[in-house]
Amino acid sequence: MKPIQHLLDKDSASIFSQVVMKAKRLEALSERLLPLLPKELQPHCRIAGLQTGRLLLIVDSPVWLTHLRFRVPELLDTLQKEIPWKDVLQIDVKVGIFPTLPTKLKPISKKPSLSSECLENFHRLMEKTTSSELKQALQQLILDTSHTASS
Known about the structure:
5 helices, three-stranded mixed beta sheet, alpha+beta, 3 strands
């Protein structure tokens, strides 16, 4: 049995390696193209493909399609001056749906605290319950909350 890395190797003629190489090329193209666009247009545009001299760009609304179409001649001229882009002969722009880039979530600064009344209710419930699992979970909740409150 061959390791999975074999499927992704550049030398391999597998479909997986071809997909990975194409994705990496599109990512590299995006990194070079997007900075050439006006800042307000950058989050609304993605490269969908490059094939036989035609660069396909996708925007997320007709408004941005209009903005980008006016900039296509200037963009094409700029791209053709750069060595890796010399094979781009035409730019097509279409409206499409693409996932937005994930944003980084802000970490929660502290654990939520429970009121003293709520803690008392948990204590009473813990004393009355016959379920050892529930008793253990309540005890852990009380300990975690008490530790947070004293910190």
